[in-house]
Design goal:
about 190 residues, 9 helices, globular, about 60% helix, alpha/beta, binds adenosine-5'-diphosphate, five-stranded parallel β-sheet
């Protein structure tokens, strides 16, 4: 079973993906995590993505699709959870082609719905809490970058909602509910 967690930054995709990894043995493929890893690797590609990510813009499709392809060929588990990918229509088409090549398909796209002001508050709070605890703060977790991330989401990623709706794969959940309630909604959809 391969699923996509689709939603704006701060919607809780990573938290829910983690739960599915623990309870179902699925494999989380987070392009954000992969890119943050690339950022610290000191490679030329890392330097290129760091500037784009910190500003809150989307990294090129070519780079992200390459990262996903590599993981799809090597990781094994009870299905993939795509977290933060696809983020553009070109990425969605590339994912369909890659899965087809592996003889696999997409089961469900879970759309996590949260309003903008809640998203900005969540991310700014997350940064403040990390700072207070002396933990590293994501360079893009500041109000300016969050606003740009949201704009990128509406311009480039939100069209995927229509795309997957038309394919009949889309299942919305209320991302404003508590973490446990969101988990229960996702479980109900997957069961
Ligand atoms: P969030 O969803 O909270 O914004 P992510 O960790 O998913 O955080 O992504 C952080 C950043 O990484 C994005 O703002 C973007 O710059 C880059 N990124 C992640 N996934 C993609 C993707 N699929 N396509 C392009 N850029 C991506």
């Amino acid at each position: 079973m391969n699923i996509i967690l689709l939603g704006p930054p701060g919607a809780g995709k990573g938290t829910q993906a983690q739960h599915l990894v623990e309870t179902r043995g699925m494999v989380q493929l987070s392009t954000g995590d992969m890119l943050r890893e690339a950022k610290t690797s000191g490679t030329e590609m890392g330097q290129k993505v760091a500037e784009i990510m910190d500003a809150g813009k989307l990294v090129t499709d070519e780079i992200v699709i390459g990262l996903i392809e590599e993981k799809l060929m090597t990781e094994k588990g009870a299905g993939f959870i795509f977290d933060g990918f696809p983020r553009t229509l070109a990425q969605a088409d590339a994912l369909a082609a890659l899965l087809a090549k592996l003889g696999q398909s997409l089961h469900t796209v879970i759309e996590m719905r949260v309003d903008d002001e809640t998203l900005v508050k969540r991310i700014v709070n997350r940064a403040e809490e990390a700072r207070a605890a002396g933990k590293p703060v994501r360079a893009d977790d500041n109000e300016d970058s969050v606003r740009i991330r949201l704009m990128e989401y509406y311009k480039k990623t939100a069209p995927l909602i229509g795309y997957y709706h038309a394919k009949g794969d889309l299942r919305p959940v209320n991302g404003l509910a508590s973490i446990d309630e969101v988990t229960a909604s996702i479980e109900a959809i997957l069961n």
